[in-house]
Amino acid sequence: MICNTGSVVQMGEKSYIDLRGHFFLGDNKLCGASANCFLRMDEDAKLHIGEKGFSIYYGSDIVLFSGAELKLGSGFINSYAKIRCHSLIEIGDGVAISHDFTVMDSDAHELFGKGGRKTAPVKIGNHVWIGTRVTVLKGVTIGDGAVIGAGAVVTHDIPPCCLAVGIPARVVRENVDWRT
User: Fold this and answer.
1) Among residues 49, 62, 105, 163, which one has the fewest Cβ atoms lying within 10 Å of its Cβ?
2) Can the peptide bond before residue 168 be classed as cis, meaning omega within 30 degrees of 0?
3) What does the alpha-carbon distance between residue 66 and residue 62 come to, in Å, rounded to a whole number?
4) Which of 69, 109, 117, 74 is nearest to 89 (CA)?
5) Is the pTM of this model over 0.85?
6) What CA–CA distance (Å, rounded) separates 164 from 147?
7) Residue 116 has what DSSP assignment?
8) Under a CB-based contact definition with an 8 Å cutoff, are residues 72 and 54 in contact?
9) Total Cβ atoms within 10 A of residue 92
């Protein structure tokens, strides 16, 4: 685990990081830049890093609440990401996630009289490309090979190998493939 200068890691009791590969926190930060990276893991929180390794770039803010589990396969999340994990967030292998990405597995608050689930797991599959300023909300599964266009808000499942765009995100093309 490599934390770039200015990165802050706060770990609660019985929280742990399971490193199977490298983990860069605050990656790609320019020398002297003030965009620090924060990782807060409350009591019993678990962070798992896959064998091929994962990078989270500078300026990102990650919170794993008590008992939460964040599973990162391989790939990267670019700068200024916001991750709020109350229960379970899984991100697969070979992912490319752009700037200002937000993912939350909970509403964190409840509207009176609304009912329903406040927290539901999020799963982002393998070989997924997510554009800049995308938000992924609770209970969503994004299928393997999917592409999410810039600025989308993902509120429902996205099938494998589809391009989804908009607010809320909707599939506009099927059978897509991408490469870096």
Assistant:
1) 163
2) yes
3) 13
4) 69
5) yes
6) 6
7) S
8) yes
9) 20
